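User: Can you predict the 3D structure for this chain?
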Amino acid sequence: MGYKIVISGYYGFGNLGDEAVLYSMLQALRREIPRLEITVLSNDPPATSREYGVAAVNRWNMRQVAGTLRCGELLLSGGGSLLQDVTGMKSLVYYLGVIWMARLFRRPVMYYAQGIGPVNTAIGRQLVCVTTRGARAVTVRDGESLKDLRFMGVRRPVEVTADPVLGLRPGDINLAVGAGILARHGIIPDSPVVGVSVRPLPGLATWEKELVRACDELARAGLKVVFIPMHTPADLTLSRELAVFMREPHVIISEKLNVSEVISLVGNLDLLIGMRLHALIFAAVTGVPPLGIVYDPKVERFLDRIGVPHAGQPREIQGDALARMAQSFLASQKELREKISRRVHELRDTAEQTAQMAHRILRGQA
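Assistant: Here is the predicted structure, written as structure tokens:
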């Protein structure tokens, strides 16, 4: 008999960033813990089960969730940015509710490399504080998440580890797959290839015109511009809307890809201009310089941790300045790759500690 664990997160929604978190957690946990039986709470259980070789139940069916937690030996909450109320209180209450349900059945709970916040409401902060006190172990993916917990009144021990995706090893990534995807879209790497990963934002979108200007300028300089959606249909729709206004040649990767395929695709780029956090992390783990647009504090937190400057917030973006920054990154590509590789190697070791802590809990050593 093996250990039985349950994983709660934003899985089964088609968001490749969150799917990459699950993919990476499974890789690390399976390496660390033998004979592991995993059940994932998913929005699309058949797809999750098929893609990752795990059991999966409907996250919205509370009877199924309760039965799964009752039979499990450990609940892993995370990774990803689960404990926040920016997307609404319902999301925060859901994830905290799953934690309380596990505790009701006297099952230990571990926060698995969570990105905490923002939690803007007073009631939200109080709920996070009270719930976090009862977890067996709490790990967060960056120091700012720890600060957020302290601000909310959490005084218990908290371990700063790293985003699970940073735990991927070079052997987990087959770059030939990504090269084949580019070839299918007519891209031969005879000149630098720049990936662009965007996401919709509320409010006025002046940044979109500036990004298009930057992409056109890079294309005129002989670079190949490739839009890589991380979340379908939202990112794909926006990529198509931006591409309509481009005057220079470009490509949109519109086919549905899984996590390993997108990571491999990003690994074949020379530069990634990105908004989505995990698109930038994909770049870093494959040694590709990430040029981030800070739509959310978590993007700046990550880039600061690997020592790479960012392009500013969306409202600050100017097309010519962004293009110059991209050219600067390409000009110093060798140095950037070496720097990023060193940082990621350190963070990979840190990320693996999260799975090791889960193993200690299961063995009754934590």
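The longest strand covers residues 36-42. The chain has a mean pLDDT of 95.
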